Amino acid sequence: MTYETDSAASAKLAGTSTLDVSRIRTDFPVLGRMVNGHRLVYLDNAATSQKPKSVIDAHSEYYSRFNANIHRGLHTLAEEATSAYEDTRKHVANFIGGVDSREIIFTNGTTEAINLVAQTWGEQNIGPGDEILITEMEHHANLVPWLVLSQKKQAVLKRIPLTGEGRLDLGNLDNLISDRTKLVAISHMSNVLGTINPVKHIGEVSHSYGALVLIDGAQATPHMPINVKDLGADLYTFSAHKMLGPTGVGVLWGRADLLEAMPPFNTGGEMIREVHFDRVSFNELPHKFEAGTPNIAGVVAFDRALTYLEELGMENVRQHEIELSGYAIKRLLEIDGIEIQGPLDPQLRGGAISFTDATLHPHDISTFLDSKGIAIRAGHHCAQPLMRTMGKLATARASLYIYNDKDDIDVLVQALREMRRYFGL
Ligand code: PLP
């Protein structure tokens, strides 16, 4: 069946790249590095992005100027640290479409955000015979928590299959969702196939059966404008480190009424209102879900990452990736023996481009490219069930971001050709 992705509909922008990549590159110190005698060509952005100087500086400035624990202290440093931390929360709330900042829960990443939902909402709401629907392209982070929960609760884990092109096959959606479906948990953009899923459409169908919709936005949030309400999500998760921010910071956004009804996740300091030896009451949102001392420096520095992306404009980021993915796909397909997984139309996908060579193993490709200073990823990309569905053990994956340009793609293609020649292919 054919359908238009939600974001493709909103991102049909014409014209040439709107990002000044050579200027952007000067903001990223690591890109000035030589690796194995070559200029670093960083194409592993789906794993983690590089960080601009403003983020690196904000991290170090926090420790050198106002390091203190938050929410508890009455001294100046504690107040400064608290207000910087809470400012980031407001910033995140604006970045994903202007939601209530009480609905932003900081976690240590997408993985923890999804586990939080599985272990709180899931514990409370999933029972024997209930169904959870995922897709065949999920990252383990949005698969294993639901598998473990289903097994524990004798619930049923179902999945939306894929078309040969690596898109969701929605032809049978009405048979996969029913009144027994309690949750539909889907990735917004696949980290392997690059596919952008029609999450809004799936959300509408899910809601018509009374199911909640959790969207794993780990790959989408760094690369396109996100408005969680417009998407019709009930819960949305993402990681700072894939969008120029520090590692160890993630976000769970959830509708306030849902979050309020959910039991706490971790327990301990900060998440309580009143504690006695025989009873405890819990803090209000968002603190109820943020037990203990969080990654204050990381959250504070994440603010600069959001500013950086906003200054570029998320529509421009998306447009740049449409153009560069289109170019990369075209150039890669010019090489004999290379096959690309996922949609070939850049309007339908992001910049995570998985490919295989008819003869060469992805690990060997990655090692050879590294000798030329090119960083890509090879393996199962934390999506083993998807690999089995595709009949592959592994793929090589080049993934793009704001500081990549056609030169990077040309260097990649030239190295791949050189490798094939080296092996007599
Ligand atoms: N979901 C998707 C689609 C991902 O690509 C990733 C990471 O690659 C994750 C979830 C997990 O993110 P994290 O490791 O930041 O928790």
Please give the CATH architecture of the largest domain.
Answer: 3-Layer(aba) Sandwich
Backbone structural class: alpha/beta
CATH class of the largest domain, named Alpha Beta
List segments where confidence is low: pLDDT < 50 over at least 5 consecutive residues.
Answer: 1-16
Mean pLDDT over the residues: 95
How many helices in DSSP terms?
Answer: 15
The number of domains is: 2
How many strands in all? 17
How much helical structure, as a percent, in the residues?
25-40%
Radius of gyration: 22 Å
First CA to last CA: what distance? 37 Å
Q: Tell me the name of the CATH homologous superfamily of the largest domain.
A: Type I PLP-dependent aspartate aminotransferase-like (Major domain)
Q: Could you describe the largest sheet, including whether it forms a barrel?
A: 7 strands, mixed
What is the strand content? 15-25%
Would you give an account of this structure?
- By secondary structure, the protein is α/β, with parallel strands linked by helices.
- It folds into two domains: 8-50 and 313-422, Alpha-Beta Complex (Aspartate Aminotransferase, domain 1), CATH 3.90.1150; 55-310, Aspartate Aminotransferase, domain 2 (3-Layer(aba) Sandwich).
- The chain has 15 helices and 17 strands.
- The protein has helices at 6-10, 21-25, 53-65, 76-95, 110-125, 144-153, 173-176, 199-208, 228-231, 256-261, 296-312, 314-333, 362-371, 384-390, 406-422, and strands at 34-35, 38-39, 41-42, 104-107, 131-135, 156-160, 181-187, 212-216, 235-239, 250-254, 272-275, 280-282, 338-340, 352-357, 374-375, 377-379, 395-399.
- The chain is globular and about 75 Å long.
- Bound molecules: pyridoxal-5'-phosphate (PLP).
- Pyridoxal-5'-phosphate (PLP) binds at residues 46, 109-111, 139, 141-142, 187, 191, 216, 218-219, 239, 250.
